[in-house]
Design brief:
This protein has about 120 residues and is α+β, with helices and mostly antiparallel strands. The protein is built from four helices and four strands, in the order ααββαββα. The radius of gyration is 15 Å and the shape is elongated.
């Protein structure tokens, strides 16, 4: 996920640790969001990007405009229907190994113990 921070250096601070838990399947979605934030809200900064309860969570700095917050919420909502492992549409929320994840049918059954 360092590719995202490298692609949009003006959006991130070096000490924010932004992508410590941003799943690979959501990377294109996050790249698109970052591109729009930089173009439409050049003064905003991203403090954190992660998966929480099976949904993308993006934390912007306290000075973010309502429009920037609305934009990030749009992308967070989009993540809820997208597999966080591969990016396939139609993902559903699953509990797995104590974590809540949004996964496509293939990834939802991957590495489960045999019945």
């Amino acid at each position: 996920m360092r590719r995202i921070a490298a692609a949009y250096p003006s959006l991130f601070t070096s000490d924010s640790g932004c992508f410590h838990d941003c799943p690979e399947g959501w990377e294109p979605l996050v790249m698109e969001l970052c591109g729009r934030l930089v173009a439409e809200h050049p003064d905003v900064r991203c403090m954190q990007c992660k998966s929480k309860f099976g949904v993308l969570r993006v934390c912007l700095d306290d000075g973010a405009s309502e429009a920037a917050v609305a934009l990030k919420r749009e992308y967070e909502a989009r993540s809820s229907g997208m597999c966080q492992e591969c990016g396939s549409p139609g993902g559903a929320v699953h509990g797995r190994y104590g974590w809540v994840s949004t996964l496509c049918p293939e990834h939802a059954t991957e590495n489960l113990p045999a019945a």
